[in-house]
User: Fold this.
Amino acid sequence: MNPQIAMLVIGRLGVALVTLLIVSAVVFAATEMLPGDIVEILLGQAATPEAVAGLREAMHLDEPSVLRYWRWIIGLLSGDLGTSYANDLPIAEMIGDRLTNTLRLAAVTGGVAVPLALTLGITTAMFRGSTYDRVVTTCVVSVISVPEFMIATLAVLVFAVWLNWLPALSFSSGTPGWGEMLRIFAMPVITLCCVITAQMIRMTRAAVIETLRMPYIEMALLKGASRWRIVMRHALPNAIGPIVNAVALSLSYLLGGVIIVETIFNYPGVAKLMVDAVATRDLPLIQSCAMVFCIGYLVLITLADILAIVSNPRLRK
Amino acid sequence: MANLVEIRDLKVRAQSDSGRLIEIIRGVSFEAAEGEVVALIGESGSGKSTIALTLMGHTRAGCEIIGGQVRLAGRDLVAMSEAERRRLRGTDVAYVPQSAAAAFNPAQRLIDQVVEVSRIHGLMPRQAARARAVELFRALALPEPETIGERYPHQVSGGQLQRLAAAMALIGAPRLMIFDEPTTALDVTTQIEVLRAFKQVMKQGGMAGLYVSHDLAVVAQVADRIVVLKDGAVQETGTTDDIINRPQHPYTKELIAAFRPVSHATVASPAAAAEAPILEVRNLVAGYGRPGPDGMPRVRALDDVSCRLERGRNLGVIGESGSGKSTLARAIAGLLPPVSGEVLLGGQALAPDVARRAKEDLRRMQICFQLADTALNPLRSVSDIIGRPLTFFHGQRGRAREARVEELLEMVRLPRAMKHRLPLELSGGQKQRVNLARALAANPEIVLCDEITSALDTVVAAAILELLDELQRELDLSYVFISHDLSTVQAICDEVMVMYGGRTVETLQASALPEGATQDYSRLLFASVPQLDTGWLDGLPERLPGT
Amino acid sequence: MAMSFSSLRLLGYRINVVAILASLFILFWAAMALFGTSFAPHSPGKVVDFDYYGPISAEFPLGTDYLGRDILSRILMGASYTVGISLAAVCLACASGVALGMAAAVTGGWIDVVLSRFLDALSSIPSKLFGLVMVAAIGSSTPVLILVLAVIYTPGSYRFARALAVNINTMDFVAVARARGEGTFYLITQEILPNIAGPVLADMGLRFVFIVLLLSGLSFLGLGVQPPYADWGSLVKENIGALAFGAPAVIAPCIAIASLTISVNLLIDNLPTKIRDRSA
Assistant:
């Protein structure tokens, strides 16, 4: 790797770290704004002034927020995410299992959506203006124009209510076998795939079309190259950066989608945990879940940027 | 024997942004014999590139051939299927684009792109193609012919890229080569090498050529015959010698006339020289990027530049791209505050940053930019554009302001009614006049002109120069005139400063140009300017001074 | 291009059928947001049917909900919440984003760096998550929703406007104005803003769609508009039980959302290129 690329990559990692710091401060500050005294809520009927003061001290709530932020960050770094207000369990433990579930859902979705979207995005750009392009583009606009819960609702309506192929809920009870697993995963994955694929097709198509406008594409045409050769050898190698970016940005919609999908299908992932935590106002749990999502997103975006830097032909020696 | 190229009554229609259909090529006919080089000459919008592309069987998006024939070796490209045209491209007819820098795929090594034609059409084995490419690199006088192909496009210079593009076109041994303004984007000193290389390989290969250009002097060096185009129609066709020495059509005569250099007559009175110079630049250093530990910017665009401008006289600044001439204008205007050195206006030192200069000082010196398209806010009417400095500097409003705007329009020879127009509705020359009128609105003493005629067609540019001359006499102005073009500078300036790499090479009296040059670089620069003379390129010495 | 297929020629003007249809839908919902409740056949909060999840009938054109309230009336009420909150939020987000973006582009230097870094960091918090945390933290009332949605979409608007303004800022006419000695306020309002207005408006439309979607999503999670009021997202949430019967109670509000968002997207896609990307 040449030093110029190395410098750019290191710079990008630095930016990611600074961003993470700002994000953590924002998340901390937001949860600080929770109305009402959390201690009084926790103690409920038993809220005598002495009990409140004691608990406040135990929870370090009497300290200035900067100090608590510092404590929190140190905890995050050492893997100590604190304990849940609601049920006194260590948060790291609560998130652990759930995270595997969410990651599994995300991985399956990504595995289906990325190849599908790249194929559709590139081919629609190649045959821009054709009937095929128009049909796909119209579907894409329709899907990205509606909320995720609508896609989920529609999927339930079609596959569970009308066709009766799949169960409407995930994880009913007991340990599921392989066939059962497939059926359980199917609905959330279908919903998420629809959302993600549409976003990705739109961005990939735009990136390839942008590249196809370049003068070197016309030059390739004037050399007698076929459409296939033009796209494969001249357009795609130059569109890698934008395409990777499009994929990363679309995968971020996955996070938003996961929140809705896990809630609708009652899927035991981190997002469901967080939505429940919001309902019970479980402050440390909300903070930790939020940080998990932000870190996931940042990792994706940073990876995409680094890939774009490395694939930039102008930095090659 | 039949002609290699025969274009008969070609008509091309284009769709404008607003969806209107316009016929941009209106019944063009011409031919070229085997081995003959024909030039298509015309100004921007004359349709010359569109015609050249139809010979590749290609029209750009939004354009459509609606009539006529384009015959190459007897076969009509218009009637052919796309697959048949594809087979001709690269093998029978090849293309050298205007900007090779944009026409090379940045992600591929040069050699792979140069030999691509032979791979697409299965012309020869890979090794043979590579060997042929190296041969062509050598013939085109490219440095390190064996290894230059291993580089990426961003690693070689513009002039080299243009020759590599020619190699890319020659690899398929086409019968016809199309050159689409191949040297327009190059500096004059680079242009010479490229032109020589082109001429050499064309002569050796005995192939026919279609050379598209707006520059008569360049065309005179390479073409056997010239087709003069205007607004999508042929004005005149003839041998190069006839067109240049005995033009028949009035439009051709106008083109030729605009090319003849005009000398500038000094208007300043001798007494003026005794005064302090109106503008003086002392040891200016400026650049871009964050300053380093020594307080100097990372990229030093101006390095210790000094010059002076006497009242009523004009200073020309000439140099190639990257010489720092435009940076000089920006530094004088305070848009790029210099790190050291001084700008003195009428003997008084100015603050480096425009934000710290007095309004009165700002008024006395105005700046005019090259591209009138970007120099005028597209959403303001002409009246607003010219009126703003009137309000800003002189507090004029309402009727008084309108009256003054009309006066200024008349001063730049534009009709009063034009004040209601938007820049979009004006031609290039008209925009540049509005641009000037805005500068004049401040009642300046100095106007900094940054390449203001470079983007204009020759005839239009000549008229602007004439206007500058007249305005100077009427308004007692002094110009700093920045240009890359020697004849332009000669036409308007008293003194000429030659710049190279951010430094002053020398300052010469315009009357002594070009023979008075004492430095190698200036001599090379002046010798490289193409002359309207068919024998100029061949008559040049093999090695120019300074190379 | 889909031009030939979606456009007609009339008296020499090109009429884009899709754009006109889309504008009609948008106008319709705008009118409903303003005056919808006065057209409502029933009071939106009143139980008018003994049956729940009632089918389409003459009396209840879109059926009834889980309590037996008239769905049509509730959708008309929801229109003012969905459209009103989203519109207010998008105006707030774009106004602040564009103002900050232009200021950053024109002044440059450390102001630009700090603003860009901070807002980029904000935008790297996924929007739905941000909404969730904020609404959970401050509670959910109409002004809070507007504010939260505006904060979430300000960074995107800032980034978009800044990129456009940076382009315009390099233009010679801005340099001429600078050389004349014009102040920052003049540069921003007179030279730059008019030249980015077209794309900024198109971007505002897109952002409006995002906000409608996010608001609906939050309401669907029970964190948006609170009962007794309801926007379209809450209507879907309330009546999600109707899914099993395929009743109109859950389908109708979905169609309302889709018709609005798809129309806005189609209108923007069919705007003349001149307005959409006048970036140079």
Chain B has two domains: 36-49+82-259, 270-379+430-531. Chain B touches chain A at residues 56, 58, 60, 86-91, 94-95, 97, 99, 102-108, 116-117, 120-121, 152, 154, 168 (CB under 8 Å).
